[in-house]
Amino acid sequence: MLAENPSEAAIRDWCTEYLARALDLPAQTIDTQTTFARMGLDSANSVFLIVELEDRLGLELPADLLFEYPTICKLARHLAERTRR
Amino acid sequence: MSKTTTEDTVQAERVDQSRFSSFVDVLRYHAAWHPSDQAYIFLPERGGERLSLTFAELCASAETLAGRLAEQAQVGDRAILLFSPGLDFIVGFLACLLAGVIAVPMMIPRRAGSRDASVAILADCSPRLVLTRRDLLIAARPDLMQRFQTNGLEWVFVDSCATGASKLRPSLPLPGREDVAFLQYTSGSTSVPKGVVVKHGNLIENSEMIRIAFGNTRRSTHVSWVPLYHDMGLILNALQSLYVGALCVIMAPVGFMQRPLGWLRAIHEYRAEVAGGPNFAFDLCVRRYQPEELQGIDLSCWKVAFNGAEPVRANTIDRFASTFAPYGFDPRSLQPAYGMAEATLLISTSRRNVGPSMRKVSREVLQRNQIVAPAQEHDSQILVGCGRQLPGEQLTIVDPETRTPLGPGLVGEIWVAGPHIAEGYWRNPEATNTVFKARTAAGGDQYWLRTGDLGFLAEDGELYITGRIKDLIIIRGINHYPQDIEETVQNCNLALRRHCGAAFSVPDQDDEEQLVIVQEIERTFRRTVAMDEIVASIREAIAKEHELTARAVVLIRTGSLPKTTSGKLQRQLTRQMFLAGSLLPT
Questions:
Q1: How confident is the model at residue A63, as a pLDDT?
Q2: Which residue in A has a C-alpha nearest to residue B475's C-alpha?
């Protein structure tokens, strides 16, 4: 779960855990600097990740968000900034 | 084969189909008789502007555009339809029919992917026109211009076309039943796509079969999120509603993936009777079910919840029915359906208000393509019936080796004949002969369509699908050819042995198909390469080229992939070894 106004690190950890579950990989093998494409995330799974983040952060996010922020690190930084606004 | 039953002759508000030779007649009929009724509504994601067209507006827009097409192309030229979700696709499709131009629906090529089917489709059908929107091409996807660059190809922007003003030139001839309406490219691998040639007569005949089986009338409002370039989205949703003169509410596919319950809310809001999709769509609704999102929703209007394009699962049906029964959803409206582009679309389905048939069989004996009752509970598997043959259609089960027709309860290849079976593949006589011109061993003049699917007919005429002859992978209703994926894998790294890998799918804990890759490593590379890096490149390439996530990538020792004595890859055996954990990892 994510608390209200989560920190960048909390978002990063949540994404890592979520992707480990979605891709059926051990969490320690997921590198937050690796691109989502390299992890093998297809567009359906990208949409599911975005929807989960929207629900948890109370934000509206564009469907091509992961094109602009292609790693867990970049995505978490961007989302942390947006939730602070 | 059994005769059409009385239940098939739906009396309610019969459309006199002998009046229609094509959808041009259908369009003009409804535009003349109820011009101000709504034909289509597009619900954009997240409350953007709602678009709608009445039958009169639809007809006028299509005729105006047809006038322009007739100036730029000859009768029989091909026109690619390249549209993001909305109503332009439908106007463009009907304009092509009016102008005698052969429509070719196409998925918008992905930004990242380099090896999709679009280039091969362009080469195969040599189109004269591409119909699209200026704002899609110029603003959103300028890369497409480059991709579609071929000799003599012209762009037609439907958003810079004034509506209503000009009249259709009287010189446009009415299409006949034997004229080609459109090409459906859903068969064949990415490198060798096959365009199914659908004639106006095929389309009218299958639309009539669907109308009778579903019991549709002018009041049968449809709500659909299935893409219009997909044969199910086009024929079972957008064209069926037009055929019976009903409203079709269209939603964007990505909107459905994000908010599947929005589909159910739209069904409630528009009091829709007909809404369906591939099996995964029903699972997605259950998985993302939240009671607070469905307060006050009444689904008792929903009469036909068709489920097709991928195997229909008993679990899915049970879970969906029990989750949404409190909202008035009637389990009898779940209607499994089976079809393919080669038959225009629909081949079999259960009938309205009947509900799905299920049958418990022995899982182990089914692996050998035989049907017996399970001896023990843990050996039992529930098969969901795909309904019965359609009126005017012949359906038979044939031993694929000997071509002998088989009796009830025996598994063989499903063969189909009837006025909805397409002419063949576009400019591909060899594949056309193999697939469309099959004859049984008994001889006779009857040509059959070989579906490539295995199944059996029960005593009561119910069709059960049990597998495929080809190793086709179906994920989220989309067909993938394992050969395409295996080639992508083997192009990732020199350490990966050519022709020594297998792609297949296995169901996960939610019964959804997931992609698995098994690939041999060259012996000489075994100690020198980083296996993690190779696996990551394979995953990346598969996501990029095929829009799929590989759930498992297993690298195995040189020479350990199961093959026949003649060196032919055994995908099914590899799959069984993967499930049993008996592969030899590096």
A1: 80
A2: A44
